[in-house]
Amino acid sequence: MSHAQPAWFLLAVAAEMVSMAAFARLQRLALGAGGLIVGLRAAASAVFAGNTLSATLPGGSLVSITYRTRRMRAWGASVPLIGFTHAVTGVLSAVALVLLAGIGGTLAGDSARLPGAAVQVSAVCGGTVAALALVRRTRVLRRPVSGLLRVWRRLRRGAGGQTSADGLLGELAALRPPNRFWVLGLGAALINWGGDLVCVLAVCHAVGSAPASGQVLLAYVAAMTAVSALPLLPAGLGPLDAALVLTLHRGGMPMAAATAADLLYRTLNPGLIGAAGWSVLLVRRRSRSGRGRVRPQGPHRFAHPRHERGVEHGHLEDVAG
């Protein structure tokens, strides 16, 4: 690590920033499918803060989802649009990761992975199409949704859960993203994973090792799969590092170089990203005082930092609670 090459490390930093920007773009696309236009700066700050909470707190994935949900509510997103955004970003990210796994197997000379990747992508896409078709059949879903809303009202014991099943299903059925949304969304998801992958490849070169791209890709997919298996660990601490180091070593990297590359990667994710995210949270915490709330103006609102006016009063305390 003491002999790491600065040029490769700077490339790793730039790749990580591109990855975060791509995820912010994916979130903006999903919200835009429901008519809510969000500024890039607002979306990027939410992504950095949400990623930081996910990577630095135990059970951070749940805290991150809660935080991003509140940010979207502050922008004026409806409950169905928020659910759609969370679901579609997860689906497109999963498809993109499976595609990268297939590409990695092909580059590494293991073409047997391609049929499995094709089956997984087809299954995810088929499930998504079936879910969208089911949502548009409001008569089928009216009874189970009504039952869930009754349970929700009993738990809440307040007026906040008085949404009707017909209104909720109507908003869901109205979400009809155009075909280009899926193409652009998948492209953003691929750039999101690809930027993080380039970061791993760059830190490998920074420590003086030049592994094959296919082996690095397989190592990266193995590490991300290990993280998804244990989502409650902050930043996948342990499983991600073990999977990355061991797979890189099996691909031909010396164990010392693989360990050094992992440590450099960790200084960026979650190190640098975590510092940036907590800075965003603290700045928002300080700037919230003395500002009023913004009321939704209709289905097509423009969410921008200068229009939010401190709508997240007390968010940091609420998340910590």
Describe the structure.
This protein has 321 residues and is an all-alpha fold. Helix content is 75%, strand content 1%. The protein is built from 13 helices and 2 strands; from the N terminus they run H-E-H-H-H-H-H-H-H-H-H-H-E-H-H. It has a two-stranded parallel sheet with strand order 1-2. Mean pLDDT is 78; it is low at 292-302 and 304-321.
Structural class: mainly alpha
The overall strand count is: 2
Order of helices and strands: HEHHHHHHHHHHEHH
Low-confidence stretches: 292-302, 304-321
Number of helices: 13
SS strand fraction: under 5%
Morphology? globular
Main β-sheet description: 2 strands, parallel
Fraction of residues in H or I helices: over 70%
Alpha carbon gap, first and last residue: 39 Å
Question: C-alpha Rg, in Å?
Answer: 21 Å
Oligomer: single chain
Widest sheet: strand ordering: 1-2
Mean pLDDT level: 78
Brief descriptors of the model:
disordered C terminus; mainly alpha
